[in-house]
Design a protein that fits this description.
- The structure holds three protein chains of three kinds.
- Chain A is built from nine helices and ten strands.
- By secondary structure, chain A is α/β, with parallel strands linked by helices.
- The radius of gyration of chain A is 18 Å and the shape is globular.
- Chain B is mostly helical.
- In chain B, strands 1-2 form a two-stranded antiparallel ribbon.
- Chain B starts with 7 loop residues before the first helix and ends in an 11-residue tail after the last helix.
- By secondary structure, chain C is mainly alpha-helical.
- The N and C termini of chain C lie far apart (40 Å).
- Chains in contact: A-B, B-C.
- The interface between A and B is medium-sized, with 33 and 22 residues.
């Protein structure tokens, strides 16, 4: 078991954004995390990545208990994440952005730069290497975020809506990129609203609602689950879908 | 490209500064020259934590003051050469830097800024009460040199070249830092700390390193000052105006750039000398009104300083290239 | 007995600290922004009171109102002209904006008013009361009590009025507030006005009871930081308790160690606070 998050809760005052969520991920899986807006998916990611301290629960990654560790320790252990709203370093070039990621495992500048260039080639960003990050549109920034976190040589990548807002062509390329990354051995958990992404990429899907997992299974089974439909639509238990 | 090939700009600036005293000889110009160099050193030191790391210290005089006091203190108390006090000043500054940074770097940026000014004022007032360190009267250095090691020169020329040497070392260190992992991490922290953390950047550790490095050189700048003037008191060591000068010089030229502090000093030191001579005694008040105004304008319109303005307005080929 | 007098005197001054510090904490809690020129706002409030008395005449109500209005306007103007634009910018901009402003205001005041200490001409509040053996200057007593009243008033304004709840809504969640039809920009401008107003009234109260010069702004500014840090980010009640505590500590320190040490103790307390309890007495961490 690569990642074992058990009974994770995160409370902001009296509001429980995450309430007893569990997630187990085996090495090599590619898992989808879906659910309505406000269900707590991003907060859950924040907890797994160490960005926010959990109120209760444990997070064990590759045998290490990371529950009380700082985000830097999570990254060092091999967890990488993207942000729902891209958080690229605007005042740095595309190459420099990726180099910041590369420096984690390549402390020396030339090694980091070589590794960063490889990542840029892999992600198709090589032509933009010397452009300022702020000149990229949102799709470019999302791709840059993926490249940047990939440069940290993660074992687990948490993608938070990294494929949202893309044109159909861009989406095909992005799905291919994620698949390529997965094939290099990176375990992936992806939060998405786009069903095409979930159906084509993931083998297992968890449905989040009101802070915890309400259903899990194969994508094609989960989307027919009545509880899931009710969560999204918020009404009527008796709708049957073919 | 693994060899270090010095860029033309560094050579030109270096050459200008080297021959300046020969072209502009005479006590008046030499004085401006040494004041410029000292200001450039302090501002470049501040720049490491304030400009590159984006942690805005407005009480940096605390490090300057310790650097300035220790040499004269060891002379007054033990009769040692003031030089021996320089490492002590550095040591104290490092400790203070860690004491300020460790609790505040975990919190939002404002806490650090408030802490720097509170600590600087605290030390300033305290020094003014403590007779051992001269209280309000201050300390003096050797009136007559007992040997070369007292560094009490009659002319200013030797000081000029010593200061120039220190500035060169500081700039080389800063340039090297820019290119290495530490420099990238600082920029990442300054731009988006949370994203930097997610990439494994050890934020607290990096910020403290930057503050310590900055404190060390600020302390050296203070030591150079008291070695040269042979006198220090709470105001000239720990005063808020010392902090202000460092900040405005770095910010005007371009905080977070290698040459920004030099540019800022090149503009402000002659300006300050001019306003002081024009307005006489009341001039210093007017100077600080001007400084306040300049700082507000920089903050409001051009936080990147003049070098940033240049980048935006200059034709493409004249723009500065970035490290990497 | 003398100690008791010192304590009461400290609490009275501390009440005024509470008043102007609540202005600072309001801004901090609402916009995550520290006004490094807040001490100068108080200092200007003191001079505004003086100018009203000298040029317009009138008693405490007149100069109190004058100082309050002048600083309210200054607060709004500073927000609209400067703060609004640097708020979302880099930390350097944010810190330098009000830091530079502090210098500008302080040295302009030195330029206009000189560095001499001044005080208000004798008003109806002169004289000293003897309450149970404690000597209390009437002006200090009235100033302190009014300061507490105004601070509580501010707190009630924020928690019991519609305007207040709008201000708090913006501070909780700017976007949600916008969706409810509240204009964050206006509310923030109002907050700056109120912050200035609190500083102005505090200045007027201080002017009735203590002499001053442009140099007091710097000390008041730092004192406000300590009060706000102790009381907690964004908490007006916290500022009230903390102000009283700081006033008390300062007065007792001056009594025990000597007047020169009073600021040292307060600033030292600040550093200790940062190490031990940065969220203060009542703030959210």
């Amino acid at each position: 078991m690569l990642l074992e998050a058990k009974n994770v809760s995160k409370a902001f005052g009296s509001f429980r954004a995450v309430a007893g969520a569990d997630l187990s991920v085996e090495s090599g899986e590619i898992i989808g995390l879906i659910g309505p807006n406000g269900a707590g998916k991003s907060t859950f990611f924040n907890c797994i990545a160490g960005d926010m301290p959990v109120t209760t629960g444990t997070i064990v990654f590759d045998g290490h208990d990371l529950t009380r560790s700082a985000p830097e320790a999570h990254a060092l252990a091999g967890i990488g994440r993207t942000f729902q709203v891209p958080a690229t370093f605007e005042d740095m070039t595309v190459l420099d952005n990726v180099m910041v990621g590369a420096f984690l495992r390549h402390p020396h500048r030339n090694d980091a730069r070589d590794h960063a260039r490889q990542i840029l080639d892999l992600t198709g960003l090589a032509p933009l290497a010397n452009n300022w990050a702020r000149t990229l549109g949102t799709p470019g920034r999302k791709r840059l975020e993926i490249a940047r976190v990939l440069a940290t040589t993660p074992r687990l990548m948490l993608l938070d809506e990294s494929l949202a807002g893309l044109t159909p062509t861009e989406l095909i390329e992005a799905i291919a990129l994620v698949r390529k990354i997965h094939e290099t051995g990176v375990t992936i958990v992806i939060v998405e609203h786009i069903m095409e992404v979930i159906m084509t990429l993931t083998k297992r899907v968890l449905v989040f609602n009101q802070g915890h997992v309400i259903a899990s299974g194969k994508p094609e089974d989960v989307v027919k689950d009545e509880g899931v439909i009710e969560a999204y639509l918020g009404r009527g238990k008796h709708t049957k879908r073919g | 490209m693994t060899k270090f090939s010095p860029p033309w700009s560094a050579l030109i600036i270096g050459a200008i500064l080297l021959i300046y005293p020969m072209v502009f000889s005479g006590a008046f110009y030499l004085d401006i020259g040494t004041t410029f160099l000292l200001a450039a050193i302090s501002a470049s030191a501040w720049n490491i934590v304030g400009g590159y790391a984006g942690q805005v210290s407005v009480g940096h005089s605390v490090f300057y003051g310790f650097g300035a006091y220790c040499p004269l203190l060891v002379f007054q108390l033990f009769g040692w050469p003031p030089l021996a006090g320089i490492p002590i000043g550095i040591g104290v500054s490092i400790v203070v830097a860690i004491l300020i940074g460790l609790p505040t770097f975990r919190l939002t940026g404002h806490y650090f800024s408030m802490a720097t000014i509170a600590v600087a004022e605290l030390i300033r007032i305290f020094t003014g009460t403590w007779d051992l360190v001269g209280a309000a009267i201050g300390l003096q250095g050797p009136a007559v040199a007992r040997g070369w090691w007292d560094l009490t020169f009659r002319g200013e020329l030797p000081y000029y070249y010593i200061f120039l040497g220190v500035l060169a070392v500081l700039l080389v260190i800063t340039a090297m830092m820019e290119r290495r992992r530490f420099g990238y991490y600082l920029r990442a922290i300054k731009t988006r700390e949370r994203a930097a953390q997610s990439l494994g950047v050890p934020v607290l550790h990096t910020k403290i390193k930057a503050l310590v490095l900055s404190a060390v050189f600020t302390s050296i700048a203070g030591s150079l000052y008291s070695l040269k003037t042979g006198f220090i008191d709470p105001e000239s060591g720990f005063g808020i105006l010392i902090s202000v000068q460092m900040v405005i010089i770095a910010a005007l030229g371009g905080a977070g750039t290698l040459y920004g502090p030099l540019l800022g000093a090149a503009i402000l030191i002659p300006l300050q000398t001019a306003t002081n001579t024009w307005f006489g005694g009341g001039g210093s008040g007017l100077t600080y009104i001007l400084y306040g105004g300049i700082i507000v304008i920089i903050a409001r319109f051009e936080p990147g300083g003049l070098l940033d303005l240049w980048d935006r307005l200059a034709p493409r080929k004249w723009r500065r290239s970035r490290a990497a | 007995m003398l100690l008791l007098q010192v304590i009461v005197g400290g609490l009275l001054l501390g009440a005024i600290y509470a008043l102007f510090s609540s202005g600072l904490t309001l801004i901090w809690g609402m916009m995550n922004f520290i006004n490094f020129a807040h001490g100068e706002f108080v200092m200007l409030g003191m001079y505004a009171a003086l100018l009203v008395v000298v040029y317009i005449g009138g008693g405490p109500a007149a100069f109190g109102f004058g100082a309050a209005m002048a600083l309210f306007i200054l607060g709004v103007v500073i927000y609209a002209g400067l703060i609004k634009h640097v708020m979302r910018g880099p930390m350097l901009s944010q810190i330098l904006s009000t830091f530079g402003l502090a210098l500008l205001l302080r040295y302009t005041a030195f330029w206009i008013f000189s560095a001499n200490f001044v005080s208000l001409p004798q008003t109806s509040l002169s004289g000293t009361l003897n309450i149970g053996g404690i000597l209390l200057p009437v002006a200090q007593l009235v100033a302190g009590i009014l300061a507490i009243a105004f601070t509580i008033g501010l707190h009630l304004l924020l928690t019991r009025t519609t305007v207040g709840s709008k201000l708090l809504a913006v501070s909780e969640d700017r976007n949600a507030a916008m969706l409810m039809g509240i204009r964050p920009d206006r509310m923030q401008a109002l907050a700056w006005g109120l912050s200035g107003c609190a500083a102005g009234i505090a200045g007027a109260l201080l002017a009735t009871a203590y002499p001053w010069s442009p140099s007091v702004g710097e000390t008041f500014g730092l004192t406000a930081f300590v009060v706000v840090a102790l009381g907690g980010f964004g908490s007006v009640p916290g500022a009230l308790y903390a102000g009283l505590i700081i006033g008390l500590i300062q007065a007792v320190s001056a009594y025990w160690f000597g007047p020169i040490y009073k600021d040292i103790v307060v600033y030292g307390l600040f550093v200790a606070l940062l190490w031990l309890r940065p969220q203060g007495l009542m703030g959210k961490a």
